[in-house]
Fold each of these.
Amino acid sequence: MIKAVLFDLDETLFDRSRTLPEFLADQFTRFQPRLGEVSLETWRSRFLRLDAKGQRHKSVVYPELLSAFGGDPDAAPDLLEDYYQCSTAQAFEMPGMSNLLADLRRSGMPCGLITNGETRLQSRTIAALGLADRMEVILISEAEGVRKPDPMIFHRAAEQLRLSPEACLYVGDNPEADVCGALDAGLKAVWFNPSGQPWPDRLSRHAGPALSALPELLDLFKII
């Protein structure tokens, strides 16, 4: 029986794919004289490619961008600090997030968050989305010293909830870090897959139930 639901953050509760381009347009406008000979469209497109869906640190991304377009190399630290300060100031939530969390709270279901990333940045995102007051536990990999898919971070969340791993359900968009990580740790897992991507052949574990939208989670409780 599921007694708690744990969520991933980026691209599960936080719509990073929508938020980041909006921030980049604003940043480009404010820093344009220092960025070199480049249009917004080209700057933003190159950033998103180099960013690799958040897998590459921005301390690497910004110098590469400035070098590519003849920008001021001394602007890199300022752009990085601006990213930390402003990139999630206007964070967009995934459609249905607030209603789902409200429904879970009304049902008495505890919720938590396990996210990989830097504490400084992820904490700002969590605050921007108003998640701190809606989660019983929040674990950020940098602060915990362990990252998904390591079972330890999942077990730590379950322990803080005073539940066994088997009583917890994890919802995330990353097949390896989120779904396989949770399953290997003994949790139940649901793959959040709004774009309808195929399950990676290289992963031996199967996704099991998948969500195309967050509100579908309540219906899944009937079959998990």
Amino acid sequence: MAEVKKIAVLPGDGIGPEVVAEAEKVLKKVEELFGHKFELAHGIFGGIAIDQTGSPLPQATLDICKDADAVLLGAVGGPKWDNNPKETRPETGLLGIRKELGLFSNIRPAVIFDCLKEASTLKPEVLEGTDLIVVRELTGGSYFGEKFRRETAENGTEAVDTCVYNVKEIERIAHQGFQIAQKRRKKLASVDKANVMETSRLWRETVNRLAPQYPDVELEHILVDNCAMQLLRRPSSFDVIVTENMFGDILSDEAAMLTGSIGMLASASLGEGSFGLYEPVHGSAPDIAGQGISNPIATILSVALMFKLSFNYAEAGESIERAVKEVLDAGHRTGDIAVDKSQAIGTTAMGDLIIAAIRK
């Protein structure tokens, strides 16, 4: 009898419920084709949770996640909650769930589909061969450091965000970057700002100390501002990029746009074991929520990542990825990746086409 994998499903806000609904259909199709068994438990998270419970991460939702083998997340946030105090902002829920579940790294692949080169703002010849992964540290840095405001007599209110990293945090994310590179093209770009920041100098020293453990990996140190420029100038030269929290947040979104749409890219947040949280890179897109026009591909590809990284269901994961490529090669597009917007299809139609294309 097939092992039952428990998946916590957190649709979230905005277009989150729409794209997650298509991913759930994919799970059902995989059950039918491959014999895998999934048990889904739904929870509220983000803005909708604030409205219903006063907290972006209710204890009941956290309990569902801790009882699961993996988490599938849609998207959180929106202008409705932008002016809330820090404790009742959707983004606080995201930081909290990463910390509570021990998720210290975010894996974001950026792969160019040949048939979508025209959707990118970069020239096709610049994009040729681009296939990279950004490995972002998730639980340290200025996002988690002490934050406060103080009054000064001369300049009025002053705000402080503290950026803190320790050796253990840097070591575990660097090891992951090296290990991922070993399984790919054996090139690792470690991104920092060591010419200015003390945390970056510790980062670089630590990465250099670990490098001899991975003699087969070519290590490059690159300053974050230069990396941002090179991602636009020579994206195909990158294999794996490893970096701290804020730099990774910015660079992974830039890498996502190389593909033509942030709606195309999956991500995984991982800890020490096989448990992971999987979500599309895009946000909640409240301006198009409820219109049925959002792109479900990133969420569907997040399921494929889940199968590969948490469940060891490589065949099922690859079948999903092939189905997405087949549908795109056939010319089907949602509005965000369509050159001719009049020919764009909706969320459900795209999901149905991909589900129909999944096969063993």
